[in-house]
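Target chain:
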Amino acid sequence: MTKRLRLELDRSAKTPLAEQIHRGIRAAIESGVLAPGARLPSWQDLAAQLGVARGTVRSAYEKLSSAQLIVAARATGTHVVDRPSFPVRRDKAPAPGSFMEMYQELTAGPAIFQMGVPAQETLPATLLARMRAQAVRVEVSAPAIYRDPRGELELRREIAAYLALARGIECAPSQIIITSGFSGGLGLALRVLGLEQKKVWVENPGFPFTRRGLELARLSIAPIPVDADGIDVDFGLKHAPDAALVVVTPGQQAPLGFTLSLARRSRLLDWVTQNKAWVIEDDYLSELQLKGRATPALASLDRVGRVIHIGSFSKTITPALRLGFVVAPAALASRFAETAACLAPAPGPAVQLATADFMRDGHYLRHLRRTKRVYAAQGDALLKYLRPRTANVAIAGLAAVLRLPKGAADLAIAKEAAPLGLAPTPLSLWYASRASARPGLLLGVATSPLKRIEASCDRLLQIIDRIT
């Protein structure tokens, strides 16, 4: 027996009434409230019942008819179509312990202490929104042609100028490929290099998403420990001298924050030159160094074209842009361009043109200076509050690294903190194996607003005391 159909309209909502009627009837059909063959009132009668214009209901009926959900005939009226039932597909939660479960947990938010995202309050959102709106108008009014797969020339020029000034890299716009964030750049570089089954050095601890990406690209992972001078090059030469690739964060090691020393930079570049290996430099924070000036990029020391530099705007502007870039060695620029054209073209032009305007007009550098001041103050406040309560804490990049006693369950602490609006990242997830893992918590500086630091730290420390 068909249940009674009830349509409730919200006249204050932004959704048009015709769309509300369409959705209501569609939901009733798909849920079985309206069974196949059920008769619907005429659009004139339903309009009178709902107190809306007849054209409103007619528009909803036409949309339902186009979707083959109802059929209208003069003799018999309007009926629900008799069609085979299809099971309703629902997204399944990621399997417990899977990479996607970890990915969703680490990227959920917003929350206090969340890693990897910038502070919302430092972003000139109104200005950026205006620039993006103008760029969208330019995009839709432009001729319908395929854009340069390397990215918009305006943005590539601005990035080349910025890199020369801030990162010491001299490159031409033709060497720059615009990508969908760092991961898009990493995927593009791995396609170009074609190193399947080869060995790759990765920092240990190091970014878990990068490590998983390398595994998916069928490379053999060689975890290399990190100390105060950055990745231990001599350890790598001793234990994996046959590696074809090194992936490093030399500016501010992720997650421990150490800068790769000049001696190790030279040693690494000498080795890759002699062995014809490659380096992918993940410059994830660019010049966003909270104390002093950031060291020049590793690529600025490369004289033989073995370093592929990848940067992004995720930490400096917002990850919502999904915008990054690769600086290809000159000898590989054509291969990168071909691969981008066939397999990984640049994102749409609007976001690129808006970012180019943002950089060209000086807003980007002003934004970085303002952001560094805010983050430095928040980092100092975190240390000021935590150090009297726990000695083993230090600022590393854009995070406070809070070390925990051996055997402490940092994963359990993070899970207990989540319902309280806190998102510390377990340090153990960044290690390549359980055997090498060390417990700790990474507290994002950017998402630690001054007015919330004391209360948030108190709640977190209470959880730590209870679990450890």
